[in-house]
Structure formats: structure tokens, C-alpha cells
Amino acid sequence: MSPAPVTPRRRGVTRLTGAAEAAAYATERSSTSAPIPSGHPSAPSGHSLTEPVEVLADPSGVPVRVQWHSRWYVVLGEPARWFQRRAWWLETSRAERGRQGLVSHKIWRLELRLEAAPAAQSRTVDVVHDVHSGRWRVVRVHE
Amino acid sequence: MNSFAHLHVASCFSSHYGTNTPAELAARAAADGAAALALTDRDGLYGAAKHISACQEQGLPPILGVDLAVQDRGRVVVLAAGSAAGYSALCEVISRAHDADPAAVPLQVLADSAASDPSGQPALYVLAGPQSDVGQAAAARGYRQTRALLRQWKQALGDALRVEVVSHLAPPGEPLSTAHAVRMLSCANVVGVTPVLTNAVRLLSPAEAATADVLDAVSALSDLNHVTGLQPNDQGWLKPPDQMRQLAEEICRASTSASVSPSRLLQSTAELAESCALDPEQHMTWGVPKIPEASVIGIDRDADEELRHRCQEGLGARLTEPAVRQRLDHELSIIADLGFAGYFLTVSEVARLIRSLGVRCAARGSGVSSLVVHALGISPIDPLAHGLVFERFLSRRRSTLPDIDIDVESAQRHMIYREVVKRFGDQRVVLMSMQNAYRIRGAVRDAGLALGLPEEEIAQLAEIMWRFPAKEFRQALAEKPELKRLAERIETERVSGRAQLDLLVDLTERLDRLPRHISTHPCGVILGDENLLKLTPVQPSGVTGLPMSQFDKDDMDPMGFIKLDILGVRMQSAIAWALDEIERTTGERIDLDAIDYTDPATYRLIQSTHTLGCFQIESPGQRELVGKLVPESMADLIIDISLFRPGPMVANMVEPFLNRRHGYEPVRYPHPDLAGILGETHGIVVFHEQIIRIFDRMTGCGLDAGDELRRKLGTERLPEVEEFFRTHAAEKGYDAATITSVWETLEGFGSFGFCKAHGAAFAVPTFQSAWLKTHYPAAFMCGLFQHDPGMYPLRLLVAEARRLGIPLLPMDVNTSTGDYRLERTETVPGAGQSPWGVRMALSRLKGISEAEVRRITREQPFDSLADLRDRANLRRSTLRDLVRAGALDSLLPGGRSRRKDLIAWVESTNLARSSRPQPKHALGQLPLPLPDMEVTQMPVEHGELSPRELVGSELELTGIDTSGHVMELHREELERQGVTYAKDLLEQRSGALVRVAGIRVATQTPPMRSGRRVVFISLDDGTGVVDLSFFDEAQATIGEALFTTKLMIAEGTIRRTGPRAVTVQATRAWELHRS
Questions:
Q1: Exposure winner among A19, B43, B74, B90, fewest CB in 10 A?
Q2: Touching check for A19 and chain B: CB below 8 Å?
Q3: What is the ipTM of this complex?
Q4: What is the mean pLDDT of residues B174-194?
């Protein structure tokens, strides 16, 4: 008998006492981790993907030319930009103080036209700029 | 125009919302060249005083406001106009909002307050923004509704209304997108309301956004995956002027109405900032002390004269002593110069009020240094007798307001607050609040909650966290032995792809020190004049419902609020209970102020180190110190209490003092002039008062300047103090060697000493409690049980009572009440046995309700189980637990031997109330006892309870092992392990190897001179308390179990440190039942 009140073991709760158990537990948990709830602003209209792209920007950071699939495009008009939230607690492993770009991505919606074919129909794509790598990616192509 | 004023800014004092301190925000705004800066925390002015101070430091015009809910209309920003009327309207409207829970103000009340400035200017400006009903309608694209709602606002508020335009650059179509801002702008345009631009700031920079996400999850009691309404992104930060201008341009460009230019939007924002800039001195009486008017305390003549008169009355014949007369004149002239006479008269009135209510009260703190305080009867300590320095408390040079603390019985504290409010009027008295900040355990729990960790895992993690700053969690993982296992786990899980624990560490660090919630300060009462409620918003205090200021103790000085600390001290309640019990049982009323403070028996008890339960000297470290110091007088007790403080311990004052006291080391003084000052502590500097006097003696600076110099020791201004000291001491003719030697002492010890006035004030209840324990042990222990004042679990005090031979009378439905009571025992006392026992209280039973306790005590006695069942009307679970705890043994023919049968019976029988209503007292007759059929027929089947079952149920149900000590159950095991008991440790030679065991009763990590952590654990083994120390190596050996093991067995060596002082330096420890 122990005089200390013993917390009853509850179903679904694992008491972790050793590294081996912890590893097993971690594997199990990460395979069953909760899905991103609907309602997060990530439901795409159009076609989502992630594809590296080269972007040239003006001095204030606004994209002006884009090289995509080895072809150069010009950006038409004033591109719209916004900041889109990430489910960072599922996507990253660290969140130390001062970490940049953790909670949202800057997204640009660009209307692109082939430089070489001024008469071609324009296409609209969303591109994201990763603050850590400095790389750009196309994340959505609007049909 | 490259400047911008943020008008909507939440600091971390918007609890579970903002992420940065007002000082951080103001510093950044100033660096960005802001024109002004507002602080608009949610629901109150919690950070307002800090904001004003920070703005003054940065040279920014401050603006104050609040982010407040308007009933049924969402949240708006309310800004005070830059006027006295504006600030007081802001305070009043916030107080009105807190009439509702959650806080919300009716629109009409807001409108009335906004129009309350007699000059006709708005007193408040209201910013209807994205969180208002207007903004919500705009987000939902209800264009017509948006306009209709805004028109209603305009009708209510007129000129005071602005539309707040905000874009957090959220994805198109979402709230806080630029499109949302555009809709607000065009609606403002159509309805004819001036728009202003803000950034609805809650972050200093985007990097804090993750912290805000965690706070949002925690405030919704949810995890990040499931919480709704997270901020759309990380853009709610304090953007610099050029970015705000870009936002203005972007919004105006996107606006099809195109009738507002970015410049005009920014201009109207700047104009509003200008109208709202506050002059703290003019508009808030910043820094000007405010006390109740003389007329309220019934004084019709000059307060200085009245104070002199009352002091002279109080001192009486002592005034013929020149020293007394001189000191009084000295103090009164300083008080008159500072204009504080009214304050002293107010405190004196409060003390008089408390005593007139029959409540024990004692002054504490540096106020005890004042003869005026003594003469007014606030403090029993004569400052002249103890050499206390008035200037430590108050002087012409002191920039802070005086602070007199009064200790009262904890159980009477709320009653006293109510009486003080009644006496001075509810417009002049409010309680002070306190911000509770995140510490490691709370931070781990909430970060774990946000990440969705299982509750039990969080609890296990929190349990092993032991007092380190949350922001150093990752560092602690690398260093602390008890976290080694956790560090390994994190590593393993990282490898297998689970990042949750890594994130947990980071998020815990982010939460460190953020304000968590506000509560009533345990003792602060603010006393002001009739305008107090125009200077502080109030909200109902959680416990008493009395109005509580939104300002905390750091805000008192700058706001010019005078607070009185009325601290509820459980020891005072325990003493009061003991005295009442003695009077109730014997008719004797003891006057503790008249006892003999040289009583040898009391000092023998103190010297024995059996001081559990005694005020200030019961902790493991104090018991050791008392054993070394061997106090023989009140002066010794004052020194003892003063030495056992972080400062003196860290500065290593204790060892040299003890060595000199016991003659192991000669007493030396740096200079004969200092012998008079340092004589009481054998040449060691212990007290602040000694430092003040050394400065004065050697430089001739005066006591007031001496205290100023003392306060600068240990700060960055140390060099200027040294310069002053060396120059002036040399001028006074002290030689260089003396000056250097004294300076080294001052420099080394100066910032670590202790105020002797505090020690003197503490020593009185310390002696009183020891005196009661010596002469009335049963009554004293009874008082301790009732009010549980100490640092230990109650069951240790019960064990101490058992050690003292005080009969512990079990809980009994016929004799127990809701309280612990002294009871004369019938048995003839044996050797060392007290004739007085303590009857355990029914209220200690877990789960019993107050109403059930009341019904039992009202209906007592009961002659049978049926009688109890019918008249006390107990819940089944309560009845069962009473049976299990033995409270019904006296109703059973076989007593405790039949308890097991009764438990079985209670658990199996239908306990429906007997169908016949009880004709209680009907027709003036007592009811006939029903034959207790069930119990008499109860089969004998279950045998007797084993001691283990007996004690087990007691601990489970009451937390106290009343019938026997829990360690008795392990006696055989302990014998087998060769354990040495606490009572025998003193006979062991120093250095002997021993094994000890017991149930953990205390864990401490006091500050150490070396800066290394030493863990002190105290075990109760039934014969007394064993104190163990664990140094680095032992901590590493034990790991997690250091803070989690309840029943511990340990090995180590005996350290004898004084005639009665012995501890065990542990090398190894483990859980008892594992061995």
C-alpha cells in the first residue's frame, strides 16, 4: 500500500517510463495525429501543387518576372499578396523564440503572360516565398 | 510625414492575448519614430501605469484606452481624450463594463461617458473596427446591414465615433483582409464617420505570432488543432510608419469609392492621436499621493497637530525621557514636511478598527522602525529598544511612499476588508490586484494543452519540473539530473519523428513570465480620497466581491496610490483559535502581550529544535540554524530570523556569526568606532540598520543619506557610493586601511543584509507560538490543525502532536464538529500523556459538504445508524466515507472491530430514507429512538480491519493518519533494512553512515552561496523529522525520483552542525517499496 493517492490509469493514456516505450508511442501517435481541421484557409480552388520557380522582384520585393518550366513570363498588373496561416505545430519541429516565418507564408497571386508570346492567354498562379531558403514555389495554378 | 501613432495595441496585460510588455512596445515605437503610442489592453488598464512609465522613459506622448466589449455589439476600442475628464471617463466606463461577466458595457452607458466632459469635447473616442458588429457585418459582406449598424453607432456617439480600418493582409475574402478594410472604409465614407487606420496590434513582431496562437488555444481550453478563431496570420504586429503608410495606400487603392486618400486616412489618425495624448501629471494626478480626507477620520484640526497630540497620549510618561522626546520630534518633523500625517492617522484608524473587532493584529515591515507607529499603538515594538532606524522607513530623501504592513488573523481578513470599506466609504477603498505570471509548471501544462498532449502525460511532466525559469527549459534539460530521462526521451522521439516534445520545450519557453490571470493581492488595500474611482478602474474581486483595482503593487507609487498591507496570517488565526479553545474549556483568558518574554522553558523548547508549527522557525533550515545558534533571548531570535534569509545566507554571514557567538573565533571590529554598531552581532554586518549607521558614522552623511547609499549597494551605482564613502571617510580622518576594510564589508554584505525591523516584528509571534507550544501544547496543536499555517502537510503536525503525547481523538459523528476542538480525555493520563486531546473535524472528510457538516452538528447526538440516516440526511457517499473513516465506530456495538461489516452493509443496503417522517420535536416530545434493526442484524462476516486498511482509508479520506503513523506499517521492512530513526540521529557521531526512511514532508532548494543547487528533503518517520541534503552527485544518482518519491529510503552520512543540529548528507535514495 502506498499512502499517496494513485492516479487511476485512464484508457488511452500511456505511461512512458523508458526510451523504447517512448519511441513506440511516438510512432503510434504520429501515425494517428489529428487531421488539419476543415475551415483552415487552405482549401484550394483550382489545382494545388508545389513546384520550384524562379522569381525576379523589383526593389520593393514585388515580383515582375518569373521563370517557370524553363520559360520566362512577365507579371501583369498589380499582383495581390496576402499572408496565409500554416498549421506550424504539425509542420515544424521547432518553434523557439524569435523564429521567423513560422505562422504564415507570404503568398502572391500573379497573372503571368509568356514573355515570348504577348498574344498568349495569361495564367494565374499563386507563388510562395520561403523566408528561410529564399526560394519561391508555385503552390496553385488557377484553371 | 514619416511617423505614425498606433491607436490599438494590446500588451501582455491583455491576458492570453498580447505577447509583449508595454516597455518593449514603447521602446520599439520610439525607435520607429512614432508620434505617440496607445495602450488599449483588453477589458482594462492592467498595463496602463507601465505604459505611462515606458512612454515617459522613451519620450513618447502616451495614449490610454481599452479594447472593450459593448453589449451585443462586439468589441471596440475606447480611447480616453487627452484630458482629466477623458481619463476618468475611461476608468468609469471600464468599471461599469465589469458589472457584467464577461465584461461588457451597454452602448448607452458608453455614449453617456463619452459625452461626460462639461467642456463639450468628447471625453472618450470610440473606434468601431473589425471586431465590432459593424466590422463583422462588413466581413460577411452585409453591406446594407453594415451601414445600418454604423448609423446606430453614429447616432449614439456623434463626434466621438471613428471607424477603425485594419488590414492584416489576410487571404482574400477573409476577415482582416484588405478587402475587409476597404468595406469598412467605404462604409465610413457613406455614413460620414471619420476613418482611422490601426493595425490591431497584439504582437511586437511576427516572431511572436506562435506565442499568440498558443495563448488563443489556452484561453479556449483547446488544442491548436481544434481551436477556432485563431489569428489569420502573423501580421498583427507593431509595424513601422513606412509599412503603415504602404497599408494605407494599398487599402485606398483597392477602394472603388476612391474618395479617401491615404494621406487623409493617416492625417485623421494622427489628429485623433493628438486629441488623446495624455499629460499624466495633469490628467491622472500621476505621482501625487492621495489619502482619505481628514474629515473622514473625524479630524477637524490640523493633521500634524492631531498626530502629535495622539503620539504624546500614546507615549505618556515615556515623554520625559529625552531620547524619546527627541526621536518623536525628529519623526514628526519629517512626517510634517512630507505631508504624510494624514496617512499615519489613517493607518492608526485602521488598526484601531481591527482591534475593536476583537481580531489579533501586529505591525510588520519597515514601519515598525517608527516611534510614531509605536506610539499610535499600531506596533508593539519599541524602535528605541531595538535600535531601529526611522530613516529606513521614511526620510525627506525617500522617493517612495511609506508602507505600513499589518498582520491579522487570516480567517478574519475578508471581514476586516469589508469593515474598512464601510468605515472609509466605498468610493475611497479598493483592493489591490496582482498579476500572476507563467512559471515553469503552468507553462508546461498550458503548452502541453495547446499541443494536445494527453492530460496524464502533461501531469507527469509538470511533476518533475522543479523551480527553474521556464525560458531556460532547454538549458535545464541539459543540466538538471531530474530531467535527464526526459531529455533522452525527447531525443528518441525526435529520431522517430515525433516533434511534440521539442515543440513543448520551445512553447514553454515562450510562455515564461507572461501574465496569466489577475487576482486579488493577498493583502494590499488602496486607501484614497473621494476621487479614487476616477483614477482606477475596478472589477469585482473573485473572493469577496469587493471592488478590486486593475493596478498592481508596482503601479502604486507612480499612480500616487497609498496602499496598506493587511495580510492574513494563518499563524495569527491559529494562535487566536488556541486561545479561544483554552478559554472555552477552562475559562482562562491568556493575554499574549503580557507573557514573560524571557521564559526559560520556552527557550528550552526552541533550543530543542522541536519547533514544528512555530512561526518562522519550523522549516528544516531554521530548525538546523536554531540548533546551532541556541537562542536565549528575543535579541537572539531577531538575529536568528534575520540570518535565515536569502541575503545573509548567500553572503555567508551565518558561519562567521556562529563561530564568534560560540567563541570559536575572536570578535574583531574594523575600527573601535564601529563596536557600538556591530556589537550585537559580534562584528558581523547583518542588519540594514547597521549599514546605514556605518555610513553615517564614518562619513557624517546623516541617516537618511545613509539609507540612500545602502539602497545603491549592489546596483550599477556602486562606484559612486564607493567614491563618496572613501572621500568622506578620509575627510573624517579614518586611515586608508580601515576605509578599505570597511568598504569591502559594505560592498560584500551591504546589499544582502536584512531589515532588523522586519526581524523584530517577526520575533514576537515566533516567541508567542513557541510559548503556547511549551505551555499549552494541545491547544496550540488544535489551533494549528484548525488553520494549518505552516509549510508542512497537516499530517506532519498530527504526527508531531502524537510525539508530544497529545491524544488524537478520532472523527466521530457524535462528538466531532466542523472544527478541531480541544477535549478533556477520560482516561487517566499516563506518563507524558496530556489530559487534553484534540478531536478531529468532520470537515476534513473529503467530499463532505458544508451543509452536511452543519446538519450533523445541529442534530447531534445520534443514538443509532437509523437515527443518523434520518436526521442528518447524508448522501450515500458521505455516509459510506464516514463509516470508512471510523466516524460511526461509536454507534456500533463492537466499535472498530465491526467496521468492516458496517462498510459492507452500507455498500449493499438500500439506504432510502425511512418512510415514516420523523416527528422531530413534534408536540414538544423527543422522538423515540427507532430500533436499529439493520445494524443489530448485521452479520459478522468480515473480520477486523488490518492496520494497513485502517491507516489507508484514513489517508485516502482525510489525508491524515490519525489512528497510527503511516510508517508503522513499514516498521518490519525498516528494521530489516537497518534504518536509524529520527529520534536516534542525535546520538550518532558525525560522519557515521546511516540509512533513514520516511514519508516526504518538505522539499526545498534554498539559495546557496556557491550558486549550486542543494536539494533539502525532509522525511517524517514517525519519531520525528529527518533532514536530508542532496548535493550534485547525489542528485544525479537519484534523477527523476528526487522530486517524485513519496516514501523514501536514503543512505548518507551524519553531519553534526551544532549541539542539537544534525542532518544527513545523502548519497543514495530510492522509493521504499522498490527496495
A1: A19
A2: yes
A3: 0.80
A4: 96
